[in-house]
Write a structure and sequence with these properties.
The chain is α+β, with helices and mostly antiparallel strands and 209 residues long. Helix content is 54%, strand content 21%. The protein has 6 helices and 5 strands, in the order αβααβαβββαα. Strands 1-2-5-4-3 form a 5-stranded mixed sheet. It binds ligand 0O2.
């Protein structure tokens, strides 16, 4: 049976999700400004695309249920780090760590954790850089901190992970071995492609200099 929030908690959750939305919008504006600054003043195109989403109440309820914690807004904000999610797609490999260092230098952003699946890919072949951070927002006249999960990866890595996510969903996480082997092999090819594209880009940049 699909778990649901009761009516009181659902009303509280709707309010909480507004605050997450403001946090996400604040971070999105910051990243768009970074993008313009890089393009206009540093001649660098490190961001191709920024996408963001707020988790649905159903998905939040499902995740809390799986964690075995009560279906409350308090439990959601304490236990879930990806209620607000942002994905940043980069053209080239070196743009990922470059953007991570920019985010680390933002004075009002508090970084809670980082996972570097670029340097250490998951056994599935998944590559991406994950940062859980806190963004300041004003709510009811006082400053609150909103958690956002940021995933940074190349377009090619995103192509792979979108398909793999669909396969994972289809097989409810239990992907048949022949398919997971195939996906892991393709992930390796995508890594090679990212590295070769990066090299060509480096050569062109050197020639331009
Ligand atoms: P959804 O449906 O996208 O929200 P853990 O592995 O337990 O240490 P955890 O909590 O899974 O850590 O966090 P992690 O590893 O940072 O993963 C967070 C999100 O990254 C996942 O969210 C996925 O969106 C994505 N992700 C992680 N591993 C994979 C993978 O192997 N394949 C794909 N396609 N995506 C991955 P959710 O909540 O699991 O799923």
């Amino acid at each position: 049976m699909i778990p649901r929030f009761d009516d009181v908690e659902f009303e509280k959750l709707k309010k909480l999700l507004h605050i997450y939305e403001w946090g996400l919008r604040t971070l999105k504006t910051k990243m768009h400004i970074v993008d313009e600054d890089l393009k206009n003043f540093q001649h660098r195109d490190a961001i191709d695309y920024i996408a963001s989403r707020i988790k649905t109440p159903q998905s939040i309820a499902g995740k809390l249920h799986n964690l075995g914690v009560p279906l409350t807004t308090e439990a959601a904000s304490e236990n879930l780090f990806d209620i607000a999610g942002m994905r940043i797609l980069c053209p080239f490999l070196d743009d990922i760590h470059f953007l991570v260092s920019i985010i680390r230098n933002m004075p009002d952003i508090n970084i809670l954790s980082e996972k570097d699946y670029i340097t250490n890919p998951k056994p599935s072949g998944y590559r991406s850089y994950h940062i859980i951070l806190e963004v300041p927002v004003f709510f009811n006249g006082k400053a609150e901190r909103v958690k956002v999960e940021v995933q940074i990866r190349t377009e090619a890595m995103n192509f792979w992970s979108t398909l793999e996510h669909k396969v994972r969903y289809k097989y409810k996480g239990d992907i048949p071995k022949h398919l997971s082997d195939e996906l892991a092999e393709i992930a390796g090819k995508i890594d090679e492609l990212d590295n070769r594209m990066h090299l060509i880009h480096e050569i062109i940049s050197l020639i331009n200099e």
